[in-house]
Amino acid sequence: MIISSTTDYREAARRHLPPFLFHYIDGGAYAEQTMRRNMADLQDLALRQRVLKGVGQVDLSTRVFGEDFALPVALAPVGLTGMYARRGEVQAARAAASRGVPFTMSSVSVCPIEEVQPAIDRPMWFQLYVLKDRGFMQNALDRAWAAGVRTLVFTVDMPVPGARYRDRHSGMSGPHAAMRRMLQAVTHPGWAWDVGLMGRPHDLGNVSAYLGKAITLEDYVGWLGANFDPSIGWRDLEWIRESWKGSMVLKGILDADDARDAVRFGADGIVVSNHGGRQLDGVLSSARALPVIADAVKGELTLMADSGIRSGLDVVRMLALGADAVMLGRAFVYALAAGGALGGEAGVANLLDLVASEMRVAMTLTGARAIGEISRESLVSAGLVA
Ligand code: FNR
Description:
The protein is an alpha/beta fold. The chain has helices at residues 6-16, 19-26, 33-43, 88-98, 113-116, 134-147, 165-170, 177-187, 205-211, 217-225, 238-243, 256-265, 286-297, 312-320, 330-336, 344-366, 382-385; strands at 62-64, 67-69, 73-75, 104-105, 125-129, 151-155, 247-253, 269-272, 302-305, 325-328.
């Protein structure tokens, strides 16, 4: 199979993964309207072609939270990344490090912090949810800091899990889910090793590290489901702000008032995000929310954005709308899950190369030599999305 874009990686992942895993990654909440709008609203933004600007060599590098980035991109935290390729968190982290960008480890990982951070030569970022089990949160923060993590991504848009129709249909959630997952994995061609994660106790990432024992995948998902905390408010985050000495980024902000509250709270950054359309269907796409938020808080904290980015052109569009840097979610996961020689670490590294080369073309043809030269002037229709 010839790979030239995220669309190809998505198709490779669809062929390689058991259906319940592909749909878990690919799907969104309810009728998936926000998920579709994330992509459509970005792609509808017309880049403003400028010619004969003598652009020459384009510089994609930037600095965020005192860290050098080879391009203004980080890998988003994605739960169960270790299910999409063998020791998937390690593979994705190595690919990101090799391309000079950060990998964000989800707290819902298969590999523990202590396995992933030593495998790379730059600090990874660590993502945490607000969970009822504050002991788990403290334990994860302590272990992340001890391992060398300095950037904490705190996800605030998951006080309750969003309902995803596809997961009900595929057997990823709902009654008899565990049984169906096992059957699908066992019967799927080429999917043997991960069956080891199904049904029997396994060393499962940060939760096993905290509980001090091996657990089954079903226990893991059950533990997480019982731990979402819908009562969470700004005050519940203060102890984290005070005890975490590194940068703290709040992920899942979609409203300018919340962005202003994040500034008052003392966040170092925010990620404008609707969780890739996986939480509340019907909310604004990131591309529509971002310019309003940029008008409210740009310059007061680091402004990141995700949801719907599928190419280097989309990265340039998000920067034009006001983001300092972006996160890639499904785009890198499809590459990781592409299987065989196409996927894994090599797949994610290649995906980042594709994004970088697309960015170079977009910047050259919009007349931007460096990341700081991308602005709303790089778009024809910026005014239409606000
Ligand atoms: C996610 N996302 C996510 N976010 C987070 O903070 N913690 C997590 O554990 C997860 N898990 C997760 C699993 C899967 C399969 C997906 C696709 C996404 C959301 C993720 O960080 C990011 O916000 C979105 O993926 C961005 O949207 P796109 O780029 O996928 O459209």
